[in-house]
Give the backbone structure.
Amino acid sequence: MHNRDDMVGIDAALIMNTKVWESSGHLSNFSDPLVECEKCHQRFREDDNSQISNSQFLISKQIQNSKSSSYAKASEDKQKDKCPDCGGALTSPKQFNLMLKTFLGPTEDSASVVYFRPETAQAMFVDFKNVLETSRKTLPFGIAQQGKAFRNEITPGNFIFRTREFEQMEIEYFVRENDWEKYFEHWRKEMLGWMEDIGVDLNHVHELEVPDGERAHYSKRTIDFEYDFPFGREELYGLAYRTDFDLKNHFKEPPYRDQESGENFYPHIIEPTWGVDRSVLAALCSAYSEDGDRKVLKLKPSLAPYKVAVFPLVANKPDVVAKAREVYQTLKAKSYLLSFVAWDDRGNIGKRYYSQDEIGTPFCITIDYQTLEDGTVTVRDRDTTKQERVSVSDLASYIGEKISNN
Ligand code: ATP
């Protein structure tokens, strides 16, 4: 985002005025179908195929996308369903609003009820005019925001796939109506490119063109990017053409004035949306591999928690340890490594390699007796397990180059 001239960032409040959620339709529509087991009283989200087995996956994607429709069909189908835990009968679905409530101020009455944002998007619509006036952007341009979102999910789970507090990255890209197809395609490619950048295996990514009648009512086109998670194919990200629905919800008068023609109008919106937590999960799943009994997390160096690990060959030879400490401190001071350098002097070298492989450290450096004689160290590559001798004086640039090329 920072290297694009057509984009500005904002950091809005987590709790916004309740009127925002009234206008956006979240208070009336942002719900999932909830069913309860009549026997054990466990509650489930009816359209969640990871909670209720595939054969019992009752409801079309419609509810997931519209969050409201298909209700009658669901109720009908639901009768056939059983509790995945105890086999008891499930109740008919009722719509459960996902907005997370709290009170603002010293009284806990209905007038002080407020809601945590369930998405970062709405702030970018209500702040549209402020951004426009301060940034002096002209169409097409985007507003981007990364931050927490909260949903009172009925069935959180599958590791970090679905949580009640999560992190989103969203862009609202404002265009002229005639240009929407061009920019939809532009963002589709950008999203795929970003997945590749963070190491998500594109062989496991599927684009689901959400058909007419199954999209949210405001969307003229939506693509869900789905990923083959170990627990099934599930939504990773979404890309939607939201028309001028949102700005019309929040502004009585057209908020944009064309500089040349003087015409006032409502810009249309392309919205790419990413879940940070699901990105991490997909990147971890894509990076996980096994090589015999060796478990290797082939993370891109840019995502690896540690870029390099430094080991003294033996922990009981002060001169080897001192030299290793020196190398460790030198690397830690390099700005491109941002202090992401690990130190390990426990156990044998083989075990240290294995434990760094498991957390995805791309390079391990060992300081040994030869280092004291000729000033070279061993650099071992996580993915090939090949080892090379590199002189200490060249080490920082050697590592820097490898990391920036990956
Ligand atoms: P789902 O159908 O899985 O509930 P959604 O269609 O409601 O997802 P959106 O409203 O499109 O999701 O939210 C945009 C993105 O935010 C999703 O593509 C996903 O990456 C992320 N996301 C949504 N809900 C959660 C959650 N509870 N936990 C983690 N990430 C989430």
